[in-house]
Amino acid sequence: MKQSKVNIQVVVRVRPTSSPATKSLGYCNGEREIMYKRHTPIAGKETYKQYYFDKVYHPTSTQEEVYKGTVSPIIKQFLNGFSCTVFAYGPTGTGKTYTMEGPSGPSGSEKTTEITAESGMIPRAIHEIFTTLEKSKSDYTVKISHLEVYKEELYDLLAGKKQTLRLLTRRSKRKGATDKIEAVVHGLQEFTVTNSSEVLDHLRKSSHERSVAETFSNRASSRSHCIFTITTLIKETTRDGQELLKTAKLHLVDLAGSEGADACIGKDGKVNYQRKAESTKINLSLLTLGSVIRNIAEGNPHVPYLDSNLTKLLSESLGGRTFTCLIATVSLDAGSKEATKSTLQYAQMAKTIKNTPEQNERMTKKLV
């Protein structure tokens, strides 16, 4: 079933300042607006540019508030048969991985499956999905996969040992899908799971495989883009005895952060050439993502999905058939002005993108 066009949901989460004495270049004005200082004063006076979003989460906002206000409604659409995407976007060191995974991520040493105050969007989503399915009277199958894009190469994080994957693309043949592509990752393993504890065990193992390193702005900076995917097949029996099958994919995406030139300078003041190569690829894919957002927002006939593996993978989430939510993380500290301004601009443009979600359901047969 096709929905009418809906705008991508865009929310902004503001990281707390690094210290009380840190100079701020902006402030949150209510629940939907950020005021950010213009670089060039007007008539000799400091002025602020207004940025509006679906929701602005202040530095004091909790993980629970972000989840309930933004992600939980997406999970409900997913369980109703709509494919969905939630991705965190923003400069390095602004809390993307904390938001998506929590303080130590699924790879932490704790073996509990309980949701704590600091649990991120991914474990909370897993918990809600299985809690809902277990309470239902439906038959269901749940599968997971975990993919990393590192220096434009694709790796399977659940394979036990990192395996390089091939990304196959083709032009979409769907009616009205001008300039859209379909992307399939050849060789990506899917694991069938039966409960949230099993999923978190897989995630702890796969998160250890993710490429991270210490950088100028972050002690454990993500050096890759990661896409964790949950696929459900739900079988229900209607009142007239027919079987209804609903299938959907949920992509939970933690993007690496955009970085400046100082990201590849070590503590000894020398250039770390591995970090430099990583930063170059990270920034290239994020620039392409920004270009995709800008071209869709401006209504340009050509959208450069094919210019990076990241945008190939996210093509359905940007102007496609999914419910999509972008969580933009920013710092209002003075030292982050260029990265923050760029993030706010692209996030505001993304708000204008419209998707056309389709419910993936079909009747199979009437039971005797």
TrEMBL record:
<keyword id="KW-0963">Cytoplasm</keyword>
<keyword id="KW-0547">Nucleotide-binding</keyword>
<protein>
    <recommendedName>
        <fullName>Kinesin-like protein</fullName>
    </recommendedName>
</protein>
<dbReference type="InterPro" id="IPR001752">
    <property type="entry name" value="Kinesin_motor_dom"/>
</dbReference>
<dbReference type="InterPro" id="IPR036961">
    <property type="entry name" value="Kinesin_motor_dom_sf"/>
</dbReference>
<keyword id="KW-0067">ATP-binding</keyword>
<dbReference type="InterPro" id="IPR047149">
    <property type="entry name" value="KIF11-like"/>
</dbReference>
<dbReference type="InterPro" id="IPR019821">
    <property type="entry name" value="Kinesin_motor_CS"/>
</dbReference>
<comment type="similarity">
    <text>Belongs to the TRAFAC class myosin-kinesin ATPase superfamily. Kinesin family.</text>
</comment>
<keyword id="KW-0206">Cytoskeleton</keyword>
<dbReference type="Pfam" id="PF00225">
    <property type="entry name" value="Kinesin"/>
</dbReference>
<feature type="binding site">
    <location>
        <begin position="90"/>
        <end position="97"/>
    </location>
    <ligand>
        <name>ATP</name>
    </ligand>
</feature>
<feature type="domain" description="Kinesin motor">
    <location>
        <begin position="7"/>
        <end position="353"/>
    </location>
</feature>
<keyword id="KW-0493">Microtubule</keyword>
<keyword id="KW-0505">Motor protein</keyword>
<dbReference type="InterPro" id="IPR027417">
    <property type="entry name" value="P-loop_NTPase"/>
</dbReference>
